Amino acid sequence: MPPVADRRPHIAVVGSGIAGLRAADALLKREVDARIVVFGDEPHRTYNRPGLTKKRYPLSDALESTIAEDVRVKGAENDAVTWRLGTAVRSADLSGRTLRLSTGETFEYDALVIAAGVRPRTAFGDGGECALHTHRTLRGLGDARYVHQRLQASEKVTITGAGFVACELASLAKEYGCEVLMLEALRRGPFESLLGERLATALGRRLVQHGITFLTGDSARELLCAAEPSHVGPPPDRSLSDRSLFIEAIGSVPNVEWLDGNGLDLSDGVRVDAYMRVSPWANVFAAGDVARYPDPWTAGSLTRREFWKNAIDTGDLAGRSLASSLGYGSVTSPIGYFPSMSTEVLGLRIQIAGDPRTSDAMEVVCGDPDEPEQGVLVAYLREGTAVGAAYLDKGARYNSAYIKLLRSLRER
User: Fold this and answer.
1) Which of 319, 380, 390 is nearest to 349 (CA)?
2) Is 204 exposed, middle or buried (0-12, 13-18, 19+ CB in 10 A)?
3) Residue 13 is inside which H or E element, if any?
4) Can you point out the beta strands (E) in 82-155?
5) Which of 1, 69, 84, 221 is buried deepest, with most CB atoms within 10 A?
6) C-alpha 326: how far from chain center
7) Residue 9 Cα to chain centre, angstroms
């Protein structure tokens, strides 16, 4: 007898990161009777992508599998969904409810979750080659294996940018014993767009105190690379080992090109409503780094955030909203994401909450902003009301004061 066709609704989740996994989990928790298919262009199931820059590893021939094991995410082993890994989605026809895959196949869906994430921004694309450096970005496990191998050789590394990835990589490179040069052409110090000039400048000084050459402005621009024209025929005789490592960590680009032609607002990710629905499609939702949603913190504006907790929260909401659209329960609460993020750079713990970018003033609660290693807690105010907080410390001197400030932010 021929196999019986699966007549359950087909739900496609494009993106195997944490947002896609949490959307699938939310559907399973609602006991949605559907076939859930997760598409991911990497060959790996969901893993903790921020963890790729957090830890030094011993020299090993199995470095990639060691890192993969270290950044495993609970729930990724779930086989209640169908995993199509190493399979990218090339285009989508939302009116026809069809995806075109990198394998040449098409996939017809009844509902869709867009969780395609972002990719690293680069100074120049594949059309050129740098004579002095081997240019790399760090986004996936393959990138991590390559970068960690090069850092294990304790060679010189140049890092462009001064955000989370750049600073974590600089800290990691120093642990490996590398000579580190950081270039930040646009700002005066790390996390300036979040923390403001005074704290950013203090963090820049701290990088230098730990042996990192940190250049900004014109001094940094002078050392940025320019691509040579693409070569026709065989590449020049230039060994990779002769060129030092140059890591670009200058931001990201939302993966939305595969959605072109569907009349969506793709100006900065995928625009959604407060329930993660992609208007005007009742069966399409988006979540994670790629979703731009109404900002719960600033009325009338939209926001797109690239933090782990945001991906978890929006993925869960997208899954619950989709389940509700199929008649499985209801969603009563729109997005209410409380922004919070943390990192550690050269032994200094940095915690940021709320939305300091919307502030018009900074108030020191504890400590000295010019000496962050001694502990400093600041509140960011807009029209006299706290809208954000930052806590920098090597210990936990002001942890109770930080928790108290967080409570006030949540209650606003």
Assistant:
1) 390
2) buried
3) strand 10-14
4) 82-85, 89-93, 98-101, 106-108, 111-114, 118-120, 128-129, 133-136
5) 84
6) 30
7) 31
The runs of H, that is alpha helices, within 177-307 are 192-195, 197-209, 217-221
Task: Pick the closest to residue 297 from 198, 402, 401, 389 (CA basis).
Answer: 389
**pLDDT the model gives residue 155:** 84
Alpha-carbon distance of 251 to 234, in angstroms, equals: 32
The answer, as to whether pTM is greater than 0.90, is: yes
Q: Assess contact for 13 and 115: CB atoms under 8 A.
A: yes
Contacts of 77 (CB under 8 A, 6+ apart): 45
**Each residue's pLDDT tens digit, 31-72:** 999 999 999 999 999 999 999 999 999 888 888 889 999 999
- What is the DSSP-derived secondary structure letter of residue 188? S
Residue 7 has pLDDT above 90, yes or no: no
Per-residue pLDDT band for 154 (boundaries 50, 70, 90) equals confident
Contact 159, 182 (CB under 8 A): yes
Residue 2 has pLDDT above 90, yes or no: no
Residue 16 pLDDT: 97
Tokens matching residue 147: 């970068």
Interval 257-285 mean pLDDT: 97
Provide CB contacts within 8 A for 293, sequence distance 6+.
271, 272, 273, 274, 276, 302, 303, 304, 314, 335
Q: 352-371: per-residue pLDDT in tens?
A: 999 999 899 999 999 999 99
- Among candidates 365, 370, 369, 373, which has minimal Cα distance to 400? 365
Q: Is the pLDDT of residue 387 over 50?
A: yes
Question: Among 87, 68, 246, which residue's Cα sits nearest to residue 145?
Answer: 68
* Cβ burial 246-266 (10 Å sphere, 16+ → b, else e): bbbbbebebbbebbeeeebeb
Residue 232 confidence (pLDDT) above 50: no
State the helix-helix crossing angle for 63-70 and 141-152, rounded to 10 degrees. 120
State how far the alpha carbon of 223 is from the alpha carbons of 172, 182, 217, 219, in Å. Answer: 22, 10, 11, 7
- The span from the CA of 275 to the CA of 11, in Å, is 18
Lookup result for tokens 């000496």: 371
Separation of alpha carbons 358 and 338, rounded Å: 14
